[in-house]
Amino acid sequence: MKRGVNNIMPKRILQGTVVSASSNKTILVSVIRKVMHPVYKKYIKKTKKYAAHDEKNISKVGQNVKIQENKPISKTKKWILIN
Length: 83
Known about the structure:
By secondary structure, the chain is mainly β. The protein has strands at about 15-20, 25-35, 45-55, 65-70, 80.
């Protein structure tokens, strides 16, 4: 595969709910995804929390937001708020 500027991978975008907005410029976003169980073939909800950068502190707890993958901002923040 050729290397170059044009072969940049797209950044992942996830949608979730704000769980915590108490930190300055940081929000915790809970993302729920459904995966099929390998044996029982039933769909299971899996939840994961992501720390995201909220520059203007505009998010409130309970809001549905979209976050985008970004270069690391701190030890835990690798996502930014996009809406």
